[in-house]
Design brief:
Layout (H helix, E strand, L loop, with lengths): L1 E13 L8 H8 L8 E13 L11 H16 L2 E2 H4 L10 H17 L4 E10 L2 E5 L3
Bound molecules: nickel (II) ion.
Length: about 140
């Protein structure tokens, strides 16, 4: 089994909050990410896929095709968007980095399989000091 990782970047806005909490309580629980007037992050996404090397090409996967899949299924839906209100696959979820990683996995899994590879890890960095990794379960 061999692994390859593609990095992509996107900028997006979000807010972490519960409607049943006051602004003060949201600030206490979610910190700055609960700012009622939204805020943005420069996200980094690392998509790792695994599989076998194709003897005809020496590649695990065509990176151009993988990049296209990530762009179409994920980046174009998130980049310069407000994740809470504009991103269909995040509807009704708290927009934490954890839930974002799971949502991105669900967006990518089928399309990656169609490239004869398997999704191994979706890593989402919300800031340079915090990141989440999701391995599918
Ligand atoms: Ni935030």
């Amino acid at each position: 089994m061999i692994y390859i990782t593609r990095r992509e970047r996107f900028n997006a806005a979000h807010r972490l909050f519960r409607e049943d909490y006051s602004d003060e309580k949201n600030m206490e629980v979610f910190g700055k990410c609960s700012n009622p007037n939204w805020h943005g992050h420069n996200y980094e996404l690392f998509v790792t896929v695994k599989g076998k090397i194709d003897p005809d090409t020496g590649f695990l996967v065509n990176l151009k095709k993988l990049s296209k899949v990530i762009k179409e299924e994920v980046i174009e839906k998130l980049d310069h968007k407000n994740i809470n209100v504009e991103v269909d696959f995040m509807k009704g979820k708290y927009v934490s980095t954890e839930n974002l990683a799971i949502g991105i996995w669900q967006q990518l899994e089928k399309a990656v399989n169609e490239l004869d590879a398997m999704l191994h890890c979706v890593k989402v960095c919300e800031s340079e000091n915090n990141y989440v990794e999701y391995f599918g379960k």
